[in-house]
Design a protein that fits this description.
single chain, 208 residues, alpha+beta, 8-stranded mixed beta sheet, two-stranded antiparallel ribbon, 7 helices
């Protein structure tokens, strides 16, 4: 737990350094977003070029993010608790959204353990949570192009017996239909709060 908490702090510092400031105009709606753990990027950031693979074997590039809002979580299939819990929460949140909002949002899991998370493994894993979730994996160097764009920290931790785990950011990253990094949401995540906040967040970003 201590290691996870410290890594969460590192993640927030990395984001703070990378985005150059948050959208912190003092108004009621922004205050509500902050209370819900939502930080809006002051100057939306375009993503670097990268080429990974989706769980169906098709190329997944920065253009794959365009056309929809993407709730992106970075994790791995051997993750014991945070990853499955977050994906289940996101799926249940999506189920509670109005149909018109559901059509605009996709949930995307990007593996930070591409050595073990093959396309086939990702397909099996995301299938447990529903057909609407996209699993992404691929070359490690291509992965770092994406994680650098979003200031996502992750680190391989060796365990006894030669096994390993991966410490990683627990945030949810929001990428807009233009393919730009728009906001991030810090844990803890609550279905009722997320399902209420997301439509307001999307509307707010679209109208500012």
């Amino acid at each position: 737990m201590k290691r996870f908490l410290s890594f969460t702090v590192v993640a927030l510092i990395a984001l703070s350094a990378g985005i150059g400031g948050f959208y912190l105009h003092q108004n009621n709606q922004t205050a509500q977003f902050l209370k819900a753990g939502v930080f809006i990027i002051e100057n939306s950031r375009p993503l670097k070029t990268f080429k990974l693979n989706s769980h169906d074997g098709k190329p997944f590039t920065k253009e794959s993010f365009t056309g929809h809002w993407h709730l992106v979580f970075f994790g791995f299939t051997h993750c014991p608790d945070i990853c499955p819990t977050t994906l289940a929460t996101l799926k249940q949140t999506w189920n509670k959204l109005p149909p018109n909002i559901q059509k605009e949002i996709k949930i995307t899991l990007v593996s930070v353990d591409p050595a073990r998370d093959t396309v086939e493994k990702m397909k099996q894993y995301v299938g447990f949570f529903g057909k609407d979730i996209i699993g992404v994996t691929g070359d490690f160097m291509e992965l770092t192009e994406l994680t650098t764009s979003l200031s996502v920290p992750f680190k391989k931790i060796m365990l006894e017996g030669g096994n390993y785990t991966v410490d990683h950011s627990a945030y949810i990253y929001l990428i807009g239909p233009d393919g730009h990094f728009r906001a991030f949401i810090k844990p803890p995540f609550h279905i009722e709060s997320l399902s209420t906040t997301l439509p307001k967040l999307i509307n707010h970003i679209q109208n500012t």
